[in-house]
Amino acid sequence: MMDYKAPLRDMRFLINEVLDYPAHYAALPNGAEATPDTVEAILEGAAVLCEQVLAPLNLSGDREGCRFENGEVTTPSGFKAAYQQFVEGGWQGLSFPEAYGGQGLPASISAFKSEMMGTANWSFAMYPGLSVGCINTIVQFGSVEQKAMYLPSLVSGEWTGTMCLTEPQCGTDLGQIQSKAEVDSDGTYRITGTKIFISAGEHDLTDNIIHVVLARVAGAPSGTRGISLFIVPKYLVSSDGAPGKRNAVTCGSIERKMGIRASATAVLNFDGATAFMIGAENKGLEAMFTFMNTARIGTAIQGVCHAEASFQRALQYASERRSMRALSGKKDPDFKADALIWHPDVRRMLLTQKAIAEGGRAMIYSVAKIADFLVNAVLDGDERKQKEQDSCLGFYTPILKGFLTEMGLEAANLGMQVYGGHGYIHEHGMEQIARDARISTLYEGTTGIQALDLLGRKVLLASKGKCVRDFTLTMVNFSKGRALRRDAIGMMARALLKRSVQWNVLTTRIMLRATKDREAVGSASVDYLMYSGFVMMAYFWALQADKASELLRTGKGRESDEFYRAKIQTAEFYFERLLPRAGAHYISATAPTSSVLGMDKAHFAFG
Amino acid sequence: MMDYKAPLRDMRFLINEVLDYPAHYAALPNGAEATPDTVEAILEGAAVLCEQVLAPLNLSGDREGCRFENGEVTTPSGFKAAYQQFVEGGWQGLSFPEAYGGQGLPASISAFKSEMMGTANWSFAMYPGLSVGCINTIVQFGSVEQKAMYLPSLVSGEWTGTMCLTEPQCGTDLGQIQSKAEVDSDGTYRITGTKIFISAGEHDLTDNIIHVVLARVAGAPSGTRGISLFIVPKYLVSSDGAPGKRNAVTCGSIERKMGIRASATAVLNFDGATAFMIGAENKGLEAMFTFMNTARIGTAIQGVCHAEASFQRALQYASERRSMRALSGKKDPDFKADALIWHPDVRRMLLTQKAIAEGGRAMIYSVAKIADFLVNAVLDGDERKQKEQDSCLGFYTPILKGFLTEMGLEAANLGMQVYGGHGYIHEHGMEQIARDARISTLYEGTTGIQALDLLGRKVLLASKGKCVRDFTLTMVNFSKGRALRRDAIGMMARALLKRSVQWNVLTTRIMLRATKDREAVGSASVDYLMYSGFVMMAYFWALQADKASELLRTGKGRESDEFYRAKIQTAEFYFERLLPRAGAHYISATAPTSSVLGMDKAHFAFG
């Protein structure tokens, strides 16, 4: 029941046919090793790990959860052995520099792997997943000594890392951080404070955990400009690289959560813990933001993961479970009732899931190319290029993170719906997917925060709408040669042309309103984000359908005709059944700001 | 944190001002006792029970869950004492006939009570809630002896009842039922079979449990026409009315569920259990459907309950928690950051919750009037009137059940979103609301089933669109005198006029298509249901806003001006921000059926 089958055929279609990764890698300085054969071997190897090792631990991991006792966290049965296999396979180091023991492959390859791991077992994937931010931070800002001391064990996966930002009084608003760092005579620091919601903050998978911590040096300016970044190892590392003395950072408890219950979410108490500053004093937040775009895309993947996981199981159930007769006549006359999949509304739900999973995958894989450029720029220390790529990625990030996690949650809920009452029962695993998916719109910046980032910062402030004009130009260029076609591609092209104009009109309307009304951005932002997501996904569906149509015509595709036809059909479904929602978001985004701001805050309820 | 405050002011506004229940009760044969003073006393008494007894057990009930051991179920701490208070208060009998120990008040009064109980603690409310179906069945179909034997203890609440329909192989498709009933020499039956998902199927709150069970008499026709209805008491009742010998119905296990964890969902094994037929042989399903409309409205209330519960807590949190500064400038300059409620997107979420809770309440309370007529017709044994009222109620039922539970789930999820990461943590109770709400779109007929019932049965088959024409005529009559007004009411009236036409056009389009394409209904149904829900709720918001506007003008209202202004503002929000979604559902409902049916069932995925 809890089987997971890596969607390799869809992945290959995107990697090789739609997005032409072979050409992308060939042009990338660190892409020479990423030959089609290597990529294929990695995909297949990761699929085996995910299907055979990680997926079987997903349901039991949720049922057992993590245990907390005397400051120590025990992960669910089987996690430790599975993590060992993960380390032995060298999976953590795939895209990290060879200088630190990694394989130096492009970052996108890790995204393919992460999608499979996250679909098989999101909670498990979080342990190595959190290391990525820690490693990236040390790679970019660490001293030569810090790199030598921490990176090899982190890159191999022998140790994991964390990012310690949130405190009880603040999550989004990091300017309110209170953790204090006092400098010692030897130049190290002593950190005191409490951090909460620290994923992988404590566990039994590795001998050491390296925390990257935001804190204020005594006397630092208040607010965001007085925050520095520190390395705080659980065990201080001796000169030979082995974990030594236990540091004064302890796990006070782990949270009882709705989902991702096999992932330990720790309260960490720093009681004068020895800390090493990383990067420049008081520049901690800026450093933290360097990899925020890539971290958020890492979370956007979660939308695809849960949509895919829920779709796979719902499809299987819909094919096997029988209920009622189809309104259009018996379909399985040899049985007492027809399989669920014959019922049109069940198909609507399955196709919605499929459209979200495969459409989201196309968005992620496309944007992963930009991440390749960005990561390389960081590794080269090329600041100009880094800014360029980061600003390019920055437009996609909030759309992917906000839209795909919202849609992933919808897909997960539809999967439960296909199961009927059985979807609500633990043993089928469908409700777990919905619970696990629920975190994705909350952490790494809520949907509301993504929306403000998109509309306020990326679209209006940073580019005055240029990023939308650029993206819609891509849509127009794709569509103009195809709009007169009398087939499905023509229909999609015409819809894209209409949405290209509309997206720019929407942006301009809000921009104009924002000059007169400072609430214009905040009261339109989430609808604007969802609008953008629906339109952007439409483009990526058209792209897939168009490639499928071309390969059907030329016969040069590697997949079967049925595969390509199903792609076109799913794209049509998307345009006819999901894209129309963009219209509703358009109307809401242009509604008067007074409809959200007119009410006095004392009048929301009358007790 | 887990406080619940009964929304008495909103309830009174609907009961006394918008829907004029005093006049409704005055005209009702059993309404004489339901004077405004009595109704007020009941509301206040129920509020005390819900706020002080039931709400404090909600979070702990979820954490503890029900325990199953040796065939027995232990409810969470405090449930037994609370249930005792419920029984002592005579709350179960409010609307049941005085002949059986009830108070004989109109059914709607129980709906007001049920809303409060369900909001305070849905899991608890399910124990007495499930009795209602059992009692109604015995009232309508029981013999004089059966009524005398079971009803007094059920009506007092000393016993509870269940409805045993679902079996492992079938839920919706009851024609597949396999449980067998064999007649004994004394005219009683022996039932053998397994029933699953039996809410309140086993528990420790009462001395006896009366199961109403669907089963097949040996030799009965196959399918739906061979199913009969039986009473199977947990303890056989002796002639003095006391529970006697243990019957052969045992609880095999209880389900591990996503939510409503304090409500025991039992697997019941009938091993030749002594059973008493109720109603006519092979007419069990028809009997079961008599009260289906009222039962489904009982579940529709759940949407309102979870929206209200989540809204109350989210509002409190948004007023207290501080994060960031408002984009339009500092709002709480004495603090480090502004309260969440100053941020427009947080307001959008709160207003969405409020619009769903109060709009849904208006829909339920309005339709509860029809339930009053229906229940009275049943009690009078007036079949013609009963059919008339049932068919009237039947149009509203799937809309209320389907639409309000979907929207209640959305509201519950928005409440988590207001809390940010804290929404995901058990102790705040927000994730519990979302988990509890999740069952509501699944049981008592999934949203998909409601949609088929609405579009296929109620709108097309039974009335050829007349029920839509009737309802939209009400909308038109309301709107036509108001459409020229230059205020908010005028805007709403014009929107309603437009939607009146559109709803009929949509219905006609699908009706025409259905004559040629038998998949037309199934592939449009859920979008049609959601469309209907959004438009119907718009009417009920306009009704509230109009009454508020009138009372503001005349000064004759019992509430404050602020209360009435907030009503109008919430209605405006609904029309500007939520109603536009109807447009997207319209487009999807009219999309070609090929977009869901074109794909071969083998091509949904390529492993």
TrEMBL record, chains A, B:
Annotated Acyl-CoA oxidase/dehydrogenase middle domain residues: 163-271
Stored Pfam families: Acyl-CoA_dh_1 (PF00441), Acyl-CoA_dh_C (PF12806), Acyl-CoA_dh_M (PF02770), Acyl-CoA_dh_N (PF02771)
Originating species: Allohahella marinimesophila
Signal sequence coordinates: none
Gene3D superfamilies, per the entry: Acyl-CoA dehydrogenase/oxidase, N-terminal domain, Butyryl-CoA Dehydrogenase, subunit A, domain 2, Butyryl-CoA Dehydrogenase, subunit A, domain 3
Source superkingdom: Bacteria
UniProt key word Hydrolase: no
Tagged with keyword Flavoprotein: yes
Family, similarity comment: Belongs to the acyl-CoA dehydrogenase family.
Residue ranges of every copy of the Acyl-CoA dehydrogenase/oxidase C-terminal domain listed in the record: 282-453
Chain ranges of the Acyl-CoA dehydrogenase/oxidase N-terminal domain: 40-158
Residue span, Acetyl-CoA dehydrogenase-like C-terminal domain: 486-600
Designated name of the protein: Acyl-CoA dehydrogenase C-terminal domain-containing protein
InterPro entries from the UniProt entry: Acyl-CoA_dh-like_C_dom, Acyl-CoA_Oxase/DH_mid-dom, Acyl-CoA_Oxase/DH_mid-dom_sf, AcylCo_DH-like_C, AcylCo_DH/oxidase_C, AcylCoA_DH/ox_N, AcylCoA_DH/ox_N_sf, AcylCoA_DH/oxidase_NM_dom_sf
Cofactor needs: FAD
UniProt entry keywords in alphabetical sequence: FAD, Flavoprotein, Oxidoreductase
